[in-house]
Amino acid sequence: MAFFLETLFGGLMTGMLYALVALGFVLIFKASGVFNFAQGAMVLFAALAMARFAEWIPAWLGFDSKILANLLAFVVAALAMFVVAWLIERLVLRHLVNQEGATLLMATLGIAYFLDGLGQTIFGSNVYSIDIGMPKDPVFLLDTVFDGGVMINKEDLYAAAIAAALVALLTLFFQKTGTGRALRAVADDHQAAQSVGIPLARIWVIVWCVAGVVALVAGMIWGSKLGVQFSLTTVALRALPVVILGGLTSVPGAIIGGLIIGVGEKLSEVYIGPHVGGGIEIWFAYVLALVFLLFRPQGLFGEKIIDRV
Amino acid sequence: MFYRENGQFKTSYQADQQIFPIRQDRIAMLVLLAVLFLLIPAFASDYLFRAILIPLVIMSLAALGVNILVGYCGQISLGSGAFMAVGAYGAYNFFVRVPDMPLIPAVILGGLCAMAFGILFGLPSLRVRGLYLAVATLAAQFFSDWMFLRIKWFTNDSPSGSVSVSHLQVFGFPLDTATARYLFCLALLVVVALLAKNLVRSAIGREWMAIRDMDVAAAVIGIRPMYAKLSAFAVSSFIIGMAGALWAFVHLGAWEPAAFSVEVSFKLLFMVIIGGLGSIMGSFFGAAFIVVLPIVLNQFLPWLFGLFGAQISTAGVSHAELMIFGALIVWFLIVEPHGLAKLWSTAKQKLRIWPFPH
Amino acid sequence: MDSNSIVLNVNGIEVIYNHVILVLKGVSLQVPEGGIVALLGGNGAGKTTTLRAISNLLRAERGEVTKGSIELRGERIENLSPAELVQRGVVQVMEGRHCFAHLSIEENLMTGSYTRRDKGEIAANLEKVYTYFPRLKTRRTSQAAYTSGGEQQMCAIGRALMTNPSIVLLDEPSMGLAPQIVDEVFHIVKDLNTKEKVTFLLAEQNTNMALKYADYGYIMESGRIVMDGNAHDLANNSDVKEFYLGVGGEGRKSFRDVKSYKRRKRWLA
Amino acid sequence: MTSRKTGDVILDVKNISLRFGGVKALTDISFNVREHEVRAIIGPNGAGKSSMLNCINGVYVPQEGSITFRGQTFSHMNSRQVAEMGVARTFQNLALFKGMSVIDNLMSGRNLKIKSNILLQALRWGPAEREEIRHREFVEKIIDFLEIQAWRKTPVGQLPYGLQKRVDLGRALAMEPQVLLLDEPMAGMNLEEKQDMSRFILEVNEEFGTTIVLIEHDMGVVMDISDRVVVLDYGKKIGDGAPHEVRDNEDVIRAYLGTAH
Amino acid sequence: QDTQFIPLLSYRTGPYAPNGIPWANGKQDYIKLINERDGGVNGVKLSYEECEFGYATDRGVECYERLKGRPGVAIFDPQSTGVTFALTEKAPVDKIPLITVGYGLSISQDGSAFKWNFPFLGSYWTGADILIQHLGQELGGLDKLKGKKIALVYHDSPFGKEPIPLLQERAKLHGFDLQLLPVTAPGVEQKSTWLQVRQSRPDYVLLWGWGVMNSTALKEAQATGYARDKIYGVWWAGTEPDVRDVGAGAKGYKALALNGYGQDNKVIQEILTHVHGKGQGTGPRDEVGAVIYTRGVIIQMLTVEAIRTAQERFGKGKVMTAEQVRWGLENLNLTDERLRELGFESIIRPLQTTCQDHMGSTWARVHTWDGKQWGGMSDWYQADEEILTRLIKAGSDTYVAEKRLQRRDAADCES
Ligand SMILES: Nc1ncnc2c1ncn2[C@@H]1O[C@H](COP(=O)(O)OP(=O)(O)OP(=O)(O)O)[C@@H](O)[C@H]1O
Ligand SMILES: Nc1ncnc2c1ncn2[C@@H]1O[C@H](COP(=O)(O)OP(=O)(O)OP(=O)(O)O)[C@@H](O)[C@H]1O
Ligand SMILES: [Mg+2]
Ligand SMILES: [Mg+2]
Q: Which domains does chain D have, with CATH numbers?
């Protein structure tokens, strides 16, 4: 029982971490109907920037407060992400208004390659660490009830809290502001959105900036967990079933999807895995998402797929 | 200037329905085939064959298969790597388990295995669409990764899960030189491309495109979405499966499941998008872009830097390669969002009206 | 036309799609302040393209103005973004509706107020649109994709009105609307024109209606303006009568009787 | 109404009701269509006309009611069955296959009639090629008939609206239907083009005896070419009869025509 | 043609770059050292070209095809298990030897079946064998392993699966319980793996990871409270990039050490003087002598010695063909004395290859991470001949049968 709870909690926490990456996908999809293949690359780029600046800034300025270094590095990394967003709009998206999803997807792939190359050129390809003082050791709860207690990881707990806060903030942003509506309009029809005076350029810069910051937060947390190196980009692949399950356009969906996927894959690996040789969680996550899709083809909270003549 | 179609009148529908209705195109095609089959084998180096041409031909074949599904039938698939893997391991099992199995039947049987697998994972397409479908196909991808690592039977009980083949022969001729391998793959590609072209310009091809463009309307004119989608999955995964078998048997010789990882799936999808969705020709352009360009960049950049007297480290080259490759993708899309094939046909269009600008 | 009251001056523009398809071959037209100008012509004549060139929605279609100039109150506008044009009061109602499929009718309308800041004004505009099109009010919460064709057309027009425009480029407003609503749409046009001094440039197939409400008309054929004049004069031109109004020499012909006989248009000779 | 004879009832719609959540798109609609006639459906926007067609060809499933076609009664058919029985249609919001050429669009209308299997098609061998050419000949006739020869090989997405409407009609005709459902075929056309379209419709009706169900907002066209008219308003039937009867019906004038006509 | 060409496959980008960079640097630096200090091998200068493949098998094969035709090409080090598998089929055709130090196919130790493969110093089977021996010693005898539970957390790829047959063999022998826990590559998500570890509470965990998987595993072990000093890694999990980022969290973690390391070794000192001292160092100075850097140096040293050996037979001061180098590889004899001369005496043990034995030495040690650096080296262990020979014989028999090969005879051994 205690073990079941641990697995459950572990799954929930992992799910929140996936959700953090998934959010980036959702944001950009929502705002432009683009499936942003570069999300993984953005996470890596942001994390690299953060990790390296946290090293460089104290060296340049000659102080050694860890907190200050992290703070400044975060700000500088966020600025870098703003610049990236602005350049992407200027050089890429602007020229691809009104093109099909496949074309835009491809363009984001180009961006992904570019960012991978650029990030490694500027920041190097080694393992770097982000130390934002996350506690690494587990705590044990309920040790009166269960023998050995129920183990929970504090780092995960913090990360999950940050993810939740971010989601709440973004949900508010989308629901309560006119911008949210404009974003959805843009996603539906670039040309019509232009025709009523929605400035695509500004909208896209805003959204890519927000997505950049989300990527930075994700990169920071994942980076602090895993170390900052190239494999961070593969985290995006783990977040994919989450986005799909939650619905490509839903911010809260990313969280719920994350929780379901997280729990589903951990329970499956732990309870089914050993009987079939293990290593099943990744495909299980996808199959789980698929099963949900068979009932709701647009994901749990996605906008209904329009099907009309 | 001599690229004109006027003056060439078609007197029968048969003539009008040819793959290349313009005479100049037909001649160009024959020349191209002659170059591919005669000239290149006479001059190409071993490196060119093994490192560029053979992979290019095989990937073109795979991209062709992907294009049928994604480009013609509009079903986004990220499971192509899995179909290739099933093709490869399917062929492998026939090859090692059936004594004296020749290569061609093994490849075709591998294709058939992939076809069955493709149909199975195509079933969700009846309900799930677009990017959401991509997830279903990714499920196929990760499942196959797992399956070939975990189920020993498929790898003939090799402890590490990696397998190899040797003594390939076609009609009794051993396939041991690079030229022979190239010609074999090329011949298969030409045959399959021809068949595929026939398919996409026949009734079934129209069904696929109809489903892609407007599925409700397609249903109203009597097209069964189920049949159309599943047949696209079947044909496409059959071709991809054969390509997978070739990749494993002819190109790699020895392989592990990672040879057909999700990256391969992504690459194949990119080939068809950058080459041109819904264009047989586009598959070849796309394959060339994705397979050849990075290699060319990799060798060209040090030379370029050398020209300016600068030294660049290998890491620097490969970072620059990534950036240039990414930038080129974006640039081509901006010039022509519908892919290289479209760019090609626009160019031909311009040539046709040359020297007038419009 | 009095040249200093011209708000919109299109001067010999040439438009090319996709770098190869030449569609407009030197189109010039003027729209006076507070006027209603009709742009008439058959399918593929280039009406939509002309409007897109003005509102600069052309780029999204991979089209490009390669020659000529477009001026709004003396200012060159070829390089302004559509959003900037909306800021300046120029809005286009696109052909084929283009409602935001996933948004409800009301949300669709509200997107039109993106450039407006004043809450009171927005509310008033919304109310105005609802009074013009009561049908929209009853369907306000439905997703636009699931409304009927006519409802979507109303939505598209209403959405444009929400931007508080001074010049509206209307592309086929009557398409798919019931006769009663067609009347109404043209009434609204007239109404806005007289009461709020909104200028209209409208591309229409319904020549009858268009000439009835417009002051001035241009007729396009294959990318050129072939004829222009006061609406009244045009309506009385014998070619226009025969080809666009259906009233040949012997009055209105029944659709049943037009058989294969066709007279060639004089200007195509 | 010269040489044609309208025959027996070929399509009988009985008590159809269709709801989408709270929206009642159709309430208890009944009407019939006779063989060889031109039957118009009119009504204000959102009255449920298009939905009615969608029910007939199996795109929507009505909650209540039945449809009888050539003596067979169905509460619901799938689109394929309807197509097989010889019902074709055009769409209000163009539903062409945008990426395909005009010829391919029309050829796709003939797909139901193609018998060669996938292998023969791949080889394009003997019978398959002959079959393809036979259908191509038929389609060319339609192309000539609709006067769209010049655009044969253009992808339809690039055609102007009016021509797309013609292609849409062509695709339906390619199915050699017995009943042709047309949803606002003349929207967005100028007079000349409407005349052409009317001519096409009437010729199909007269020469092939095709029964036509037509939704149209241009009253001139409706009055001139239809034999009988159904009027819908807010999902209810408010009138049914010969054109002139309908035109003079008080309810119809109030709900639909307005005063001007 | 007057230089001996050494192609260098490397990955300085991509997921495994953190390990790939020092490795590649070590390989280059040693070549530079030989050219700089000795003027080449008996006067034959060494030339090289690096080809970046980002750990992608197909790009690696492309590199191979590109470089294999260069004049004077000596040898290939595929640097990845995937590329090794692919090249194992090609090398016999092209007649180019493959050197895989500490990786590759375990059965390729059998030189009579694998003429062109040289898995020097150890394979995963020797590694796994030594780990078990070490555990036995810690417990005070292999018999104490009875009833113990050992979990293998492995990279789910041929690399990770290689040790399984040996461990199973050993498990049968000593009666311990072997639990297999695969981790999907690249291994960034291991929560469920470590939850399973927590559930089954094995006495030891063997970590068969590569790249990011290693640090993630250690972090996850910390997060689930599994004692790090019960975790034992393979030598690819015992380098600096594997633990640096975990720092104190990995304190007590042990891993196999295939080779010695550190800047005190003579060869490293010479590299510092002759290469870095002249501003020609490939990477940063402080990485010289790191675990995986040193492994790169060893690989190159073995290559150079093979060339030297070949020259003894085929002509001093001449550029050797790849076939001749192969003979050199097969007839290496690096005695204690020779190693001392070369400056490798505390880096590796003496090594002698034969036509039958392409590995030359099956010795390794175990070292410990103290939270800041590797150290606490154990004594050398040698893999158990008896078990290995049995497994290798069985494996290579199947291989020979499958490929319809002839085992090499005495005459062939002379060639
Ligand atoms: N995006 C495009 N790409 C290529 N050609 C186009 C594009 N849009 C329009 N055209 C071509 O430009 C010509 C003019 O089209 P336009 O839509 O402006 O005509 P229109 O007068 O508005 O016709 P309609 O009355 O049918 O709307 C047509 O021949 C059409 O094929
Ligand atoms: N799939 C659907 N989901 C929800 N509501 C629908 C759907 N289809 C139609 N409706 C609603 O049913 C009503 C009738 O729609 P329909 O399209 O049949 O109207 P119509 O008579 O064709 O009007 P128009 O002349 O404007 O085309 C409309 O109010 C529409 O919003
Ligand atoms: Mg138009
Ligand atoms: Mg309708």
A: 1-86+177-261 (3.40.50.300), 98-176 (no CATH)
Is 70 exceeded by the pLDDT of residue B8?
A: no
Task: Copy the structure tokens of residue B340.
Answer: 């290289």
Whether C210 maps to a domain, the answer reads yes
pLDDT tens readout for residues E228-243: 999 999 999 999 889 9
- The alpha carbon of residue C60 is apart from the nearest alpha carbon of chain A, in Å, by 5
Confidence at C3, pLDDT banded by 50, 70, 90: low
Residue pair B205/B67 in contact by the 8 Å Cβ criterion: no
Angle (CA) B101-B104-B106 rounded to 5° is 50
Are A114 and B130 within 8 A, CB to CB? no
Strands D9-20 and D23-34: antiparallel
Residues paired with D233 in a beta bridge: D236
What is the span of the domain harbouring residue C42?
3-96+165-236
Taking each helix axis from N to C terminus, what angle separates B280-307 and B178-200, rounded to the nearest 10 degrees? 140
Q: Which residues of B touch D129 (CB under 8 A)?
A: 14
D216 alpha carbon – ligand 3 mean position (Å): 19
Residues of C within 8 A of D257 (CB-CB) are 179-180
Q: What stretches in chain A show pLDDT beneath 70?
A: 148, 307-309
pLDDT classification of C249: cutoffs 50, 70, 90: low
> Contact, D237 vs D231, CB < 8 A?
yes
- Dist. CA C147 → ligand 2 center (Å): 5
Set of chain D residues whose Cβ sits within 8 Å of the Cβ of B222: 79-80, 83-84, 111-112, 175
Structural domain total, chain C: 1
How close, in Å, is residue E405 to chain A by CA atoms? 33
Mean pLDDT of B81-109: 93
Residue pairs spanning B and D at CB distance below 8 A = 107
Ligand 3 geometric centre to CA of D205 (Å): 29
| Neighbour tally for D5: CB within 10 Å | 10
- What is the model's pLDDT at position D1? 43
d(CA D191, CA B157): 76
Q: B223, D111: Cβ pair inside 8 Å?
A: yes
In a domain, A304, yes or no: no
Q: Measured in angstroms, how far is the CA atom of residue C219 from the centroid of ligand 3?
A: 13
Least confidently predicted of B354-358, C95-99, E84-88: B354-358
For residues E297 and E353, what is the distance between their CA atoms, to the nearest angstrom? Answer: 19
Residue D61 near ligand 2, beta carbon < 6 Å: no
Ligand 1 atom closest to Cα of C62?
A: 1
* Ligand 2 atom with the shortest distance to the CA of D18: 12
Q: Is residue B2's pLDDT more than 60? A: no
| Three-state secondary structure of D128-159 | HHHHHHHHHHHHHHHHHHHCCHHHCCCEHHHC
β partners of residue D67: D13, D74
In this prediction, residue B129 carries a pLDDT of: 85
Please tell me the pTM assigned to this model: 0.92
Task: Kindly state whether residue A309 falls inside one of the protein's structural domains.
Answer: no
Residue B318 has pLDDT above 60, yes or no: yes
In a domain, C65, yes or no: yes
Ligand 2 pocket residue status of D93, Cβ below 6 Å: no
Could you tell me if residue C112 is inside a domain?
no
**Structural domain boundaries, residue A210:** 2-295
**Which pLDDT score, from 0 to 100, does residue A136 have?**
78
- The CATH number that applies at residue C80 is 3.40.50.300
Report how many domains make up chain A: 1
Q: Does C267 have pLDDT greater than 70?
A: no
**Subunit contact D220:C256, Cβ cutoff 8 A:** no
Q: What confidence tens digit (pLDDT) does each residue in D76-103 have?
A: 778 888 899 999 999 988 889 988 999 9
Evaluate whether residue C46 is within a structural domain. Answer: yes
Residue A211 belongs to some domain of the structure: yes
Is the model's pLDDT at E277 over the cut of 50? yes
Q: B34 — contact with chain E (CB < 8 Å)? A: no
Please report which confidence band the pLDDT of residue C268 belongs to, taking 50, 70 and 90 as the band edges: very low
Task: Please state, in angstroms and rounded to a whole number, the distance separating the CA atoms of residues B146 and E161.
Answer: 13
Checking if the pLDDT of E285 tops 80, the result is: yes
C108 chain-A contacts, CB cut-off 8 A: 185
